[in-house]
């Protein structure tokens, strides 16, 4: 019984953390802060799904955790490149 209560409390705290990061994405003073908050949202979402999976005693969400982790990493790299270079993929010069 106490294990379920701990899991539910941790889900609530992770939800509050996601909401705080959403606020930082909207109000962030710089684009670097926004990128960092988006990455933190991805990490908190992965943790929330993992806790939810443990709470339901199932392995069905592990593929979803892997997919969100990969997409979060690729998104963070793409945003970082965009802020650094102004473009995500460098096009070849014709000539």
From TrEMBL:
The chain crosses the membrane at residues 6-26, 38-58, 64-82. Keywords: Antiport, Cell membrane, Ion transport, Membrane, Transmembrane, Transmembrane helix, Transport. It comes from the Bacteria. One of its GO terms (cellular component) is plasma membrane. It is found in: Cell membrane. Pfam families: MrpF_PhaF. It is a multi-pass membrane protein. GO terms for molecular function: sodium:proton antiporter activity. Belongs to the CPA3 antiporters (TC 2.A.63) subunit F family. This is Putative membrane protein. The lineage of its organism: Bacteria, Bacillati, Bacillota, Bacilli, Bacillales.
């Amino acid at each position: 019984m106490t294990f379920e209560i701990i899991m539910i409390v941790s889900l609530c705290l992770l939800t509050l953390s996601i909401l705080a990061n959403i606020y930082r994405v909207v109000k962030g003073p710089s684009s670097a802060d926004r990128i960092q908050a988006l990455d933190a949202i991805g990490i908190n979402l992965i943790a929330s799904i993992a806790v939810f999976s443990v709470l339901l005693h199932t392995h069905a969400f592990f593929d979803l955790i892997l997919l969100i982790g990969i997409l979060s990493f690729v998104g963070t790299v793409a945003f970082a490149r965009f802020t650094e270079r102004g473009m995500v993929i460098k096009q070849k010069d014709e000539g």
